[in-house]
Write a structure and sequence with these properties.
The complex is a heterodimer of chains A (127) and B (429). Chain A is α/β, with parallel strands linked by helices and 127 residues long. Helices cover 46% and strands 19% of the residues of chain A. Chain A is globular, with a radius of gyration of 13 Å. Chain B is built from 18 helices and 6 strands. Chain B is globular, with a radius of gyration of 27 Å. Helix content of chain B is 54%, strand content 9%. The longest helix of chain B has 32 residues. Classes of the chains: A alpha/beta (127), B alpha+beta (429). At the A-B interface, helix 1 of A face helix 9 and helix 10 of B.
């Protein structure tokens, strides 16, 4: 079974770039563009890694992260947050909610890909 | 602290360049050779008539020899050095820098001032970024767009086997995102321009006024000739914000009132006659003592008018006016030396104080200070005081009982001073 990423992001061109990169790296990529039902999308898709934007229509990535960490089935899911809000208070908030890694935009493709691989590897080591 | 080697060394340099013997030059300007020797070795301060005579004999502008401006530059360079602890600079050679490369020294100090102003701007913008949701959203949009462009461009560069269809799509995406970036950054710039006009000013309002007054030597010819404060403020490039304009207008209004009460020619003549005694001048012109202080400091320096400095502060010690005399650089930022009689005067409002002070350059001044109410006195309202201090250069007379003062702690090397509030940067070299 191929490893999968759920990308929760609402910027079409970022979605296209990230999904292209991940697919070329061998990942199965699923896209979700709404914040309001993102938690349900995670439960439905059951990805190996979640790439989560902060500013989403309907609901903030912080709230989604918090819900996922409070759910036993997703509390250990590797979550990479991507955000243009790179202020210290945002990073600290994400860390307090249990984010796996917090990455600020603009990021390099290598950095993003490397972190997805790393989070996945760390999660499989735990199993 | 290295002594201010500037003026004396420069005089010596110019004398030697002209092949003049010390004794010959001394004779031409009417002082003893031994006194000139002390001056050349920076053991005696020089100003007034002696400086003018020397510059005339040496055939150069007095300002080239004057150390006041240079001392101020040295102090600012020291402050600049202290502001960046990571870069080691040759603190002991600052005066050489000023003497040998005055243009570079001026450039560094101007950039230092600009940097300080920009730091304040950045601080203000940072606060705004945190608290202004509109700006935060615009910034988010710019960064998201940049992120899309960066990722897409990297794919195009790093994927040589990319199919034509993908290539076309990614080029199209870059085109779309770059247009969006242009729009969003223009929108953000417009927002910043609208909101941060105040922060974008080149200096704090008070510093802008200081700069404007400094550039005119605190003598405002336009006001002397009847221009209105508004007309003058409009001509001053340094007064570049509404807040600075307000401060400048207040200052100009006082200046104009002083000029009307003490017309320049009549006042200058009286000042010479009364040996620049502000109390005598205040009596003769029937003005408050502090007005006579201000008027004396506004007189242009000449062969008959000595170098006169002025500094005033509010009750918290914050400087409100600063005209540096040669030999004592008054700070642009922060507070001055706690030992200045200016601050002593605040302890006894209404009591004039006279004290001889000596700067680190061994320049001596008669310091005349007074604390006075800043507005009309009223019942049931505590008076608000300001202090003002006049600094009249002592050319040749040397007082043994002079109080040793500095400019401000950061750039003062009197390490064992009981009044020190923070370490100096001078000894850190």
């Amino acid at each position: 079974m191929s490893k999968s990423v759920l990308l929760v992001e609402d910027e079409p061109n970022i979605i296209e770039a990230i999904s292209f990169l991940l697919e070329r790296d061998g990942w199965t990529v699923r896209i979700h563009s709404q914040g309001s039902d993102a938690v349900e999308a995670v439960e439905r898709v059951k990805p190996n890694v979640l790439v989560l934007d902060v500013m989403l229509p309907g609901r903030s990535g912080f709230d989604i992260l918090k819900d996922l960490r409070n759910d036993n089935t997703t509390k250990d899911l590797p979550i990479l947050m991507l955000t243009a809000r790179g202020q210290t208070k945002d990073r600290e908030l994400a860390e307090s909610y249990g984010v796996s890694h917090f990455m600020t935009k603009p990021f390099s493709n290598e950095e993003m890909l490397g972190k997805v691989r790393e989070l996945y590897a760390a999660s499989t080591d735990k199993v | 602290m290295p002594k201010s080697a500037l003026t004396g060394s420069r005089i010596r340099e110019h004398r030697l360049m002209r092949g003049l013997k010390q004794a010959d030059l001394a004779r031409q300007i009417g002082i003893s050779a031994s006194y000139l020797n002390l001056i050349e070795h920076n053991r005696r301060r020089i100003g007034g008539k002696t400086l003018l005579s020397l510059s005339e004999v040496l055939g150069i502008d007095p300002s080239i020899l004057s150390q006041g401006a240079e001392r101020a530059v040295v102090a600012e360079l020291q402050d600049a050095a202290a502001s960046d602890a990571d870069t080691v600079v040759e603190l002991d050679q600052i005066e050489d820098l000023v003497a040998r490369f005055p243009g570079w020294a001026a450039k560094i100090t101007a950039q230092h001032r600009r940097l300080r102003a920009l730091e304040q701007t950045v601080g203000g913008l940072n606060d705004r970024l945190t608290h202004d949701p509109v700006l935060s959203d615009k910034m988010h949009e710019v960064l998201s767009t940049v992120s899309a462009i960066r990722s897409t461009a990297s794919i195009l560069v790093a994927t040589p086997d990319l199919g034509a269809e993908w290539q076309a799509r990614f080029y199209s995406n870059i085109d779309t995102e770059s247009r969006r970036l242009a729009d969003s950054s223009a929108s953000m710039a417009a927002h910043l321009d609208h909101l941060s006009r105040k922060e974008a000013s080149s200096a704090t309002p008070l510093e802008a006024v200081f700069a404007a007054l400094d550039s005119r030597g605190y003598h405002l010819e336009e006001l002397e000739k009847g221009a209105t404060p508004e007309e003058l403020a409009g001509k001053m490039a340094e007064v570049d914000s509404e807040e600075a304009r307000e401060l400048a207008l207040d200052y100009f209004a006082n200046y104009r009132a002083d000029a009307a009460a003490m017309p320049q020619d009549e006042f200058t003549q009286a000042a010479i006659e009364l040996k620049f005694d502000p109390a005598g001048l205040a009596t003769r012109f029937n003005v408050p003592l502090e007005a006579a202080f201000r008027r004396l400091a506004s007189l242009p320096r000449s062969a008959t008018v000595p170098d006169i400095g002025l500094v005033s502060c509010d009750a918290a010690g914050a400087l409100l006016a600063r005209k540096s005399p040669s030999g004592l650089a008054l700070p642009w930022f922060g507070a001055g030396c706690p030992l200045w009689p200016l601050y002593t005067a605040l302890r006894s409002p209404g009591v004039p104080i006279r004290q001889v002070i000596e700067s680190e350059d061994r320049a001596q001044f008669i310091a005349l200070a007074l604390a006075h109410p800043s507005g009309p006195l009223r019942f049931d309202h505590p008076p608000v005081y300001q202090a003002i201090m006049l600094l009249i250069a002592q050319d040749a007379e040397v007082s043994e009982s002079a109080i040793q003062v500095g400019s401000s702690c950061r750039v003062c090397a009197r390490t064992h001073c009981a009044a020190r509030r923070e370490p100096t940067v001078i000894t850190q070299s």
